[in-house]
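Page header: ASSEMBLY MODEL / four components / 1031 residues total.
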Amino acid sequence: MSENIYKPYLMEIDNIIEETPDVRTFRLKFKNLEEAENFSFKAGQFGEYSVFGEGESTFCVASSPTRKGYIECTFRKAGRVTNALANLEIGDTVGFRGPYGNTFPIEEWEGKNLLYIAGGIALPPMRCVIWNTIDLREKYKDITILYGARTVNDLVYKHELDEWKNRPDIKLITTVDPGGQTPDWKGEIGFVPTVLEKVSPSSDNTIAILCGPPVMIKFTMPVLKKLGFQDKDIFTTLENRMKCGFGKCGRCNVGKVFVCKDGPVFSYEQILELPEEY
Amino acid sequence: MNNLISRAKELLESKTVNVVIGYEAGPTGLARPAFITDSAKADKLIYDERCVQNLAVYLTKAEVKNFGKMAIVARLPVMRSIMMLISEQQVIGDNLIILGISEDNSLLDIASISVMQGYIDKCDLGNPSKDREILAELNKMTPEEKFSWWQNQFSKCIKCYACRQACPMCYCIRCTVEVNQPQWIPVQANAHGNTEWHILRAMHLAGRCISCGECGRACPVGIPCHLLTMQLADQVWNYFHVHAGTSDKMNSVLSTYEPNDKESFII
Amino acid sequence: METTRKLIRKHSLELLYKKLSASNKVYAPVTATDKQVEYKYNPPFSDVTFDHIRSTLSVKNLVFPKVENLFIFSNSKTESSITDVNLNLLPNVVLWGSHPCDNAAFDILRSIFCWDINDEFFSKRLEKVTVIGLACHTSDDYCFCTSTGNAPNSVKGSDILLSKLSGGDYIAEFITAKGSSILASSPELFENETEEKAVIAVVNTKFSHEQVTEKLQTAFEHPFWVENSLRCIGCGACTYVCPTCACFDIQDETKGKEGRRYRSWDSCGFGLFTLHTSGHNPRHVQSQRWRQRIMHKFSYMPDRNESLGCVGCGRCSSACPVDMNISEQLEALQNI
Amino acid sequence: MSDFEPKVVAFVCNWCTYAGADLTGTSRLKYASNVKIIRFPCTGRIDFMLLLKAFANGADGIIVSGCHPNDCHYTSGNFHAKRRWIMFKELMDFMGIDMNRVTFSWVSAAEGAKWAEVVNETVTRIREMGPYVSYKELVNKTIEEEVKNE
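Prediction written out in full:
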């Protein structure tokens, strides 16, 4: 039988976490054990998740490659497929194709400080690399995570934020937009760029990994520059609409670069070379 | 034509408008839309029987709207489209100067929307005569013949949506075919998807089609889909005595009613 | 490469056609009542046209159908399964009388579908196709094959190329093993070549594609795009008639528990092509979409796929309802 | 075709015909069981696409029914519907899609007997016409066509 590159693995939903009213995390296990054995991926890669009858949707693998036997994904109910996904229950089947795309160059980061900056629903694409580096904790120096959301309610992975908060080897700063706080909120209040400026982490021997809505990126970049970060030391992921995931369907390109093949991970140095089509 | 060019120059030079939408001759001799922003380039404007495209389609296009005040070369179908667009609140009449062109290709003096209305009222508002003939032929067929005739036509459809894009009245940013929760019309271009698409398009233009025939002309594979909307335009006249695009204040036929509308099939 | 050339008389051509149709599906151009030239499977030889300039649609649907099942699935609460489409059941197809521009497009499509990973839906279909091309003896103002590195008698992509002689007979040039096997199986239909020269259309060069590619490197922000695409109405006609446009959409369709995932043609000209679910659209106005089409064919593809994304058939220009003439625009781009 | 039992879908308005159909039941009037009733707030809500979807999903006949003119719960929904159906019927006739398979009727909440009549008459008519083969073929063509790689 020929190899059908559009054929997804059948996955069973093993666990569902309701992160916020419209954000869910699924833990998916391969139905076929042989496929599970042969499957591997790296931090930063993404896949095409499908609900049969509704279609496919693109998002990253949110779990770390160091955690074997399953993958996790986090999505917000937004379109046809994500709404259909959100209606599924534990034990239901979804399709998964992947992994696609490039990876975070975590080997090159060994021996450096890591500064993760995420906004809102952009923590999931970063969670994979965060856990990956935490699981290889001894290889990296200081790990700082700055995470902001509009409101306390919109913070995802609340249980993990607690875990990171309590670990002495990780510095976690959480913030919510002004007005988004609750009476018992203990984190920062303010937009991510403002909080970043206030915390003012050193750029010395440090890699910054930045994910968030375009407006957050736009205002965070100048702060990072001011802190002395080089363009090549800032990494982010791009998202564009995709269908195939491997550079054929022709819609995710930014100039001549395919987000699905050459991305989704780009250094800021690379991004500056790209035309504005993302 | 000279009148048109000098009028266009005058409008651009006096900054009354920022752009004149008209026609120019392309390299293969076809007339095509031209957007003249510089009075020095107004000499390119042509007006003759080659100029068939309905320019009103550009009035709702984002990049054209950015020009602000504009003048548009308009024969009867374009004027009627503009009327429809004003009545559906897609276009503001005050931002528009109509460079009306009569049936014998001379420049009309259309100073206002009400003057335009007066002009439209005096015209024959039925379907073009060549289409009337084809419609008459089709209407003589048996239902089975009609079905296979249309199915044969639809089998050519590739769903490029040129019919929709060429139509001034199809200005929705998200068309029903693109609504996917639920997916109303099958996405693929097959017998089923194509049939439903053409039914949907015709129904959404019922009482709004001004019989310019642009959809059929735009079709790259030659489906005479304008006959569908023209047939309905005929029926709108038969049943409700309304011609679309005759007033800037009319309500669309299907969003209004008369208590004594006549039909004979409801039991 | 040395190729065999033979003479084939018009009546032998008919015999060849009949012989091939007996064991293959033959896909050949016919002129329909409304003057459109369309390809049909096994039309009677008398209907087959040899004088068309270009068919309304390209022949890419042979290898990239407008709708194509990727797999069939069955899905219920407890049980899900996927059934592959058996691509080995695809019939052999002889593409008959297609012009060199269309035939050259197969290689370009391969460079899209088979770079990096091999798309078997495409490649298995292509394997089944034997191309009997027909050199152009007529052309029109839309033709610009010579500007894209092709020619009215280019053998690129053909297994056999027929060229018309003034008397109505044809020269058959056997280019590939597939082509030669047809000669081997029907030697009686062919005669030795005579001195007579084939009638080949003259297509003047309109621009240098190398120079266009060069110019495009720095033309992304040029006002050219807005100025020259204001009249574009954003339909997909150009991309759907194009022999090399290969963008597609993937969709599901179900009936009860059974369903299929299919891919269908899509167009970079559509506003929703790149629209994110969030509402953000990286290419939110038509000029950006028009730029994408030209950039893709004349800049990104030469860069990435080492092939120009255009064969100069002129279909997009002739199909365009608003006369967006691509060769005119490329000519202008060459000089910006 | 003697054993053919047509599938009929009825799109009815909540206020008149649905109540009328209730009355048919409570009056112990028998009517054909081939009909599947789908209740809408008003005939004004019944999009023509729904009729096409019913045919696409295997219906052989359709009934569309609501309040008599001037009786609409929302004053004018049925008047709008009437115009829509006039246009739809004309378009279908023009395209050769058989509108004898669709019954349009006004059935009030008091007309239980009329509802039974409308259903029985429709089912009898559709039974005589046989299954709606041409539309089913149109829909099924999809899959067959592609399997043949045409």
